[in-house]
Amino acid sequence: MTARPPYAGTRYPRLAQIPAFTSFIAQGWGDEPVLPSLVPGTAAAAADHRRRLSDRFPGQTLVLSAGIAPVRNDDASYLFRANSGFVWASGCQIEGSTLVMTPAGGGHDATLYIPAPFRPGDDGFFSNALHGELWVGASPGVAEWSDALGIEVRALEALDGLAIAGGQAAASVDETLLASLDLTRSAELDRALSQLRMVKDDWEIGQLRAAIDATVTGFAAVMREVPTAIGEGLGERWLQGTFDRHARTHGNGPGYSTIVGSGPHAPVLHWVRCDGPVLPDAALLLDMGVETHSLYTADVTRTVPASGTFSAEQRAVHDLVERAHRAGMAHVRPGTPYLDFHFAAMEVIAQGLHDWDLLPVSVDEALSPDGQQHRRYLACGIGHHLGLDVHDCSHAEYEDYMGADLEPGVVMTVEPGLYFHANDLTVPRELRGIGVRLEDDLLVTADGAEVLSAALPIDAAGIEAWAARLLAGR
After folding, report:
1. Left, alpha or beta for 223 (phi > 0: left; psi -120 to 50: alpha)?
2. What 8-state DSSP symbol labels residue 270?
3. What beta strand segments (E) does 321-445 contain?
4. Is the model's pLDDT at 463 over the cut of 60?
5. Which residue of 45, 151, 367, 379 shows the fewest CB atoms closer than 10 Å?
6. Which residues contact 31 (CB under 8 A, 6 or more apart)?
7. Chain-wide mean pLDDT for the chain?
8. Beta strand 440-444 with 449-451: parallel, antiparallel or unpaired?
């Protein structure tokens, strides 16, 4: 009787220890190079980004890493998503890769170090579930990536023992690599990356337009499924899944966890559980964004009536939010202090809540730094930068972000809302459980701003007409 191996998998004992197996599996494979799948213009955009970064750090070596996916459970990891600063500077999204920018000729030379894929003949081909081609499929190698990006690309092992004196390392560089290269993290480098990423170039703006356009069609896809979500009892999660499938089909995936909140879930700012029903007479808050293959994301919110028609109370809340939204957007223009749009929208919200007798103080008292009572119903901010991250450059210093003036090329959101929780006894019963948010993505231009998400209506009548058409399957 043939002896049975103690374990039938690839790890215990490793199949690599069985010469007959390793010899056989190394043979008979075709060799067809796989090319990197890059969005057109990626390499040129990354080269320009490195040039701008180089100008900030003359004579200093810079190190950025893509990062690795965190463990989800046991030996299974979450889907990998590369560090945004690394992607901005490299154009690459390979897990575990590192970019080193070395001073040369008044600028910097860039070398990208990547984990080389395990090919037939390598033990990892069949035993490494993260990089073995038998597990994850064929992938581009060092030469293919070098040709695609126009920079030197080397296998990750070449980083071992590399001497980097006085280098600046980004936050994305892990502790092991920091120690091996004798580096320390550089807050100055991370700050520079945030500052540079706040103003988008033409290529980046094109990627954001594509993300937003795909998001607009995703909203339509979701609305067409509302009757099914209600009629078959599939609920919020069916709509969340509808958008996520759309995002995976027309981009890399959703840019953040899709929010679908019906009725009493709509006031919950980040309702990503999406485990409730879609109530036919309730307002439905949809906060969704497609991330492109280049990783730039949209971030758009609309609150729609699941029935196609707002109730009187829903309409009143929506109208107040719309007035705040328009006031905020009117302050998005070059040369304007960043926070002006926030204060303009808050003034409208505070006045409206006062008119409804929901504030225990005057409007001026509420808006004062020592008041802020209106924020009970709007605890979040009114917008943020948008780009490779949905809350782009959120780790920037206050004076770079909140304290700066807007300039052409900035892309940002405006998103006021009102959130009356179902258990909030400070509001009339008829308002409890109503949550409304309007969010658009705006590009600051030379003389004003362009609403990139303008294809979606923002007024209540326009939303009702849009919703009714889609609910009817048109």
Report:
1. alpha
2. T
3. 411-414, 417-420, 434-437, 440-444
4. yes
5. 379
6. none
7. 94
8. antiparallel
The structure tokens listed for 215 are 């998001």
Angle among Cα 348, 352, 353 to the nearest 5 degrees reads 120
Please give the pLDDT value at position 2: 60
How sure is the predictor about 12, in pLDDT bands with cuts at 50, 70 and 90? Answer: very low
CA distance 28 to 45: 40
pLDDT per position as a tens digit, 411-458: 999 999 999 999 999 999 999 999 999 999 999 999 999 999 999 999
Contact yes or no for 168/193 (Cβ under 8 A): no
Go through the chain and tell me how many residues it has.
Answer: 474
pLDDT for residue 259 is more than 50: yes
Q: What whole-number distance in Å separates Cα of residue 229 and Cα of residue 235?
A: 5
Of the candidates 322, 342, 320, 341, the residue with the CA atom closest to the CA atom of residue 427: 320
Structure confidence at residue 74 as a pLDDT band (50, 70, 90): confident
Cα gap 83→295, rounded to integer Å:
10
Q: What is the four-CA torsion angle of 353, 354, 360, 364, rounded to 10 degrees?
A: 110
Helical H runs in 298-422?
312-329, 340-355, 363-367, 398-401
* Confidence label for 182 from pLDDT (cuts 50, 70 and 90): confident
- DSSP code at position 4: P
Tokens found for residue 179: 């120690």
Angle made by CA atoms 15, 20, 23, in degrees to the nearest 5: 90
- The whole-number pLDDT of residue 394 equals 87
CB 258 within 8 A of CB 296: no
Identify the pLDDT of residue 3.
61
Mean pLDDT within 176-186: 88
Within 13 Å, how many C-alpha atoms sit on residue 445's CB side? 10
Rounded to an integer, the average pLDDT of 229-258 is 98
Among the listed residues 337, 469, 473, the one whose alpha carbon sits nearest the alpha carbon of residue 410: 337
Pairwise CA distance, residues 260 & 386, whole Å? 21
In contact, 420 and 431? CB cutoff 8 Å: yes
258, two tokens:
């899709």
- Inter-residue contact 215 to 289 (CB < 8 Å): yes
Q: What would the two tokens of residue 250 be?
A: 């027309």
Distance between CA atoms of 395 and 85, rounded to whole angstroms? Answer: 12
